[in-house]
Amino acid sequence: MIRTASIVACLSALLTSPALAATVTVPAKTAPESITAAPNGDLILGSAGSAKIYRAKKGAATAEVFIDAGSEGNVTFLGVLADGPSNTLWACQIGASAPNGPRHTTLRSFDLATGAPGKVHWDLPGEQNLCNDFVVGPDKALYVSDTFGSKIWRLAPGAITPEVWLEDRTLNGIDGITFLGGVMYENNVIFNKIYRVPMDANGKAGRPVDIWTDKPIKGPDGMRAAGNKLFLTENGAGKVDALTIDGDTAHVTVLQQGLATPTAIEPAGDTLWYGERAADRALSMPLPK
Asked: Are 222 and 34 in contact (CB under 8 A)?
């Protein structure tokens, strides 16, 4: 016989488990392109539909405005990344289109606790560029993907101006970027590819190595690493995947499908967050082991 007290205790444990599925919403047409988790468990969401970055307190179901860059004009945000050790929130700010010209994009830093503007406010050079995503490497430098500039930029710790780390034709369409086991991986949203980027003992990049996926992927976008896996969103297929790397092969396991333009992914503790840009929300699941 199962006692009522035991049932209540079990339900209470389930309801307070941090790994249970949760949803965080933002205002309509916010289009959360990227999400990141602060060290205290707060969730931060960029907005490809407005000049705002949103923040949801840990456990909250709705996000509030954290940063409003409306004074800079008709801008929006792609990647956001919380860097706890430096108390920095990194953001890719997308400017308004110039008359008969391309959009201008900017790498920005903000105080992770307050949202106050930081020291980095760097316009990517060239007529064709798109600050899209970034990752902090084992060397504590920030690596930035430039989708239309076909580059990876590197910002050394304490610096305010990045330098070109890698320029290669395979980077035309680079989107998500991350490190797994000290090795850099990046994806290509245009050509539906995953690459490993070799690095020598001096930190110099080599030519990207094509990683074959054992299932087709369509529109690889946000990508982060946790444990021994890469986690990936497919914005063109409405999927969230786990990738296990075996040499030059990636074994693809579909975790969720039927999603509304998923572009964001973020492992945080025992939880995996993923964002639906077209549904104006972030959702979670227990982090696969």
From this structure: yes
Q: What gap in Å lies between CA 270 and CA 194, rounded to an integer?
A: 25
Is 8 inside any structural domain? no
Any domain includes 11: no
Amino acid at 193: K
DSSP state of 199: B
What pLDDT score does 261 carry?
Answer: 98
Asked if residue 150 lies in contact with residue 171, where contact means CB atoms within 8 angstroms, the answer is yes
CATH code, 96: 2.130.10.10
Q: Check: CB of residue 192 under 8 Å from CB of residue 232.
A: no
Exposure b/e, 110-120, CB count within 10 A at least 16 = b:
bebeebeebeb
Q: Give yes or no for residue 6 having a pLDDT over 80.
A: no
Q: Is residue 85 part of a domain?
A: yes
Provide the pLDDT confidence category of residue 12 given band limits of 50, 70 and 90: very low
The pLDDT of residue 17: 41
Q: Which residues pair with 272 in a beta bridge?
A: 267, 285
What does the alpha-carbon distance between residue 46 and residue 37 come to, in Å, rounded to a whole number? 12
How do residues 70-117 score in pLDDT, each as one tens digit? 999 899 999 999 999 999 999 999 997 666 666 789 999 999 999 999
- C-alpha to C-alpha distance for 36 and 77, rounded to whole angstroms: 13
Instruction: Tell whether 62 is covered by a domain.
Output: yes
CB 49 within 8 A of CB 76: yes
What was the pLDDT predicted at 102? 65
